[in-house]
Each structure stands twice: as structure tokens, then as C-alpha cells.
Amino acid sequence: AQKVTQTQTSISVVEKTTVTMDCVYETRDSSYFLFWYKQTASGEIVFLIRQDSYKKENATVGHYSLNFQKPKSSIGLIITATQIEDSAVYFCAMREGLTNSAGNKLTFGIGTRVLVRP
Amino acid sequence: EAAVTQSPRNKVAVTGGKVTLSCNQTNNHNNMYWYRQDTGHGLRLIHYSYGAGSTEKGDIPDGYKASRPSQENFSLILELATPSQTSVYFCASGAWGGDEQYFGPGTRLTVL
């Protein structure tokens, strides 16, 4: 069974600096997809960025980027030039297998709370 | 406007009572999902659906039923609510072949 582990429960950084958070995963599939979602203080959950297992290049979207280390089963999220509004809980998630196998269901980690302070 | 809505947003129920949580999406997505969120567990999948008329068990289906009467609507049913089902429940939708899931605002359920 697939498993996603986030060991950092909370991180505090100063505004405009870089924050990095870790995620390791377990899967028996050769094809899988990794995601990061953000949950704001209001409870809203939004998709941020995705990495396909077969791609060697690290995904980047805006000031979010990934550090994909396939041999270590690791997918870290990096947020550069942090802003106060980046304060949130960040969830790592994984989907195994082919597109729409098992309804594209995701397995989530428990989340890392990030506080960006002035 | 919000594409995934949930009702009610807050619910207090009694042990042994029946609870129905409703979700509506205007994304025209085939896939819909119900999760619960608890401290220390993140988001856990309860049931999901490929389309109208289909429901599938997720990772923690015990004590829950689901119903997908139409493309737009997906309900989560607690026939006999228990205090252990006190949680925040999120509905989400996703496109067939897509990867991103779109989440509703959540429903806070308290079972006394």
C-alpha cells in the first residue's frame, strides 16, 4: 500500500526567505504522481504543484519548486521569497498508477504547518 | 464563484442519529471524493465516485455510505453517527484523466 510521510510538523521562517519542507513516499508502482496542496487558515485547500515520476526535471510554478529525488523516494517543496500569505499547512500527496485507475485517488501526508513572520 | 460547495457547513448530531452531508460541483467532473481531516492524520479518503450511480470505498469507509445520484451531487451518509466521527469533512472533484482535485470549503461535524 502506498504511504506518504511528512515528518516536519511545523516550520517558522522570516518573510522573504526560503523555506523547504520534506516528504517521503512508499509505492510499488513504477508510475506515480506527486502533488503538493496548501490549506490556508480559513480551511481552503488548493493544489499547488505536481511532479510525474517519469520526469527528471523538477517542477516549478511561480515561487514554488520541487526537489524530486527518486532514488530516495523524496519530494521536497521549496518556497522562495516567502510572503506572509504563504503561512499555511502544506500537504504532500501521491497517486499511483495509470490515469484514472482507481479514480485518481490520492494518499495524503499529515501536513507541515508553515509560519512566515515579518 | 465556488465550483465545489458543501452543506451544511456546520452540523451537530446526536449519537445514533443519521447524518447526511451534501456536496455539489459545477466543474462537470466525473470523479468526486469524500475525505475527513483529523489532527495527526491529514486527509483520509472515505469514499469516491467515478460518475453518476457509482460509489467506491476509500481507505476508511467503515461507518459511512455514499451516494452519487447525478454528475453534480455526491452525498456522504452516516446511518448511525458516533462520537469518533466528529471531524471536518471535505468533498472534492476531479476530471477524468486529470490530476488536480478541487476541494469544497469543508463541513465541521460534531457528534455528541
| pLDDT averaged residue by residue of chain A | 92
Instruction: Kindly name the structural category of chain A.
Output: mainly beta
Given the structure, what is the number of helices of chain B? Answer: 0
The N- to C-terminal Cα distance of chain A equals: 41 Å
Strand-residue proportion of chain B: over 45%
Helix content of chain B: under 10%
What class, by secondary structure content of chain B? mainly beta
The mean pLDDT of chain B is 94
Query: Any idea what the radius of gyration of chain A is?
Result: 14 Å
What percent of the residues of chain A sit in helical stretches (DSSP H or I)? under 10%
Question: What about the largest sheet of chain B?
Answer: 7 strands, mixed
Most extensive protein-chain contact, per-chain counts? A-B, 24 and 29 residues
How does this structure look, described?
The complex is a heterodimer of chains A (118) and B (112). By secondary structure, chain A is an all-beta fold. In chain A, 0% of the residues lie in helices and 52% in strands. In chain A, strand 8 and strand 9 form a beta hairpin. The radius of gyration of chain A is 14 Å and the shape is globular. Chain A starts with a strand and ends with a strand. In chain A, 33% of the residues are buried. Helices cover 0% and strands 52% of the residues of chain B. Classes of the chains: A mainly beta (118), B mainly beta (112). Chains A and B meet through strand 6, strand 10 and strand 11 of A and strand 4, strand 5, strand 9 and strand 10 of B.
